[in-house]
Amino acid sequence: MPHRTIRKSPAETPARAVEILLVEDSPTDVMITREAMLEAKLINNLHVVENGEDALAYVNRRPPFADAPRPDLILLDLNIPRKPGLEVLAEIKQDPRLRSIPVVVLTTSNADEDVLAAYGHHANCFITKPVDFEALCQVLHHVEEFWMCIVTLPPGRS
User: Fold this and answer.
1) Rounded to an integer, what distance in angstroms lies between the CA atom of residue 52 and that of residue 24?
2) Is there a contact between 138 and 106 (Cβ–Cβ < 8 Å)?
3) Neighbours of 86 (CB within 10 A)
4) Rounded to the nearest 10 degrees, how much is the dihedral formed by the CA atoms of 138, 118, 19, 46?
């Protein structure tokens, strides 16, 4: 049987923008992510925080993020300052209010221990970031296509 991609019809696509939280300290990777999202022309909002403490403040709506929307998807780098990504992941997945938010680990590491630890803390997937610009754009396109067009995200909760 040939491989086939199943996409949601426009009627099945959410009418509201998808809220994506990118936890990334590299300005270059943030720029590439923004460009990939623009190129995909999907309806979404990208919010960026640069460290683990801000990521947890954001998802818990603590100042200065008290009015932040609940993310529908989190793209999490493991190598971030102030609180490591694995700790951020563990705290999100231990919190009953937050655990349904899909977390995609998107990091430069491909170490077995990082992969095992991420899945051990209930990451929804683990992707090793390519270092090449075009390859990273392609990976981000696939991530976005999968999470925004193919899967059904959990309904947002306040």
Assistant:
1) 9
2) no
3) 20
4) -50
Confidence of residue 40 (pLDDT cuts 50, 70, 90): low
Determine, yes or no, domain membership for 33. yes
Peptide linkage before 64 cis (omega within 30 of 0): yes
Length of the chain: 158
Tokens 């932040």 locate to: 68
Q: What is the CATH number of the domain that holds 65?
A: 3.40.50.2300
Q: How many domains does the chain divide into? A: 1
Q: How far is CA 56 from CA 34, 84, 112, 127, in A?
A: 22, 11, 25, 21
Is 158 within a domain?
no
Find the domain containing 132 and state its range: 18-148
Global pTM? Answer: 0.85
Residue type present at position 102: P
Q: Is 4 left (phi over 0), alpha (psi -120 to 50) or beta?
A: beta
Q: What is the pLDDT of residues 57-68, one digit of tens each?
A: 999 999 999 999
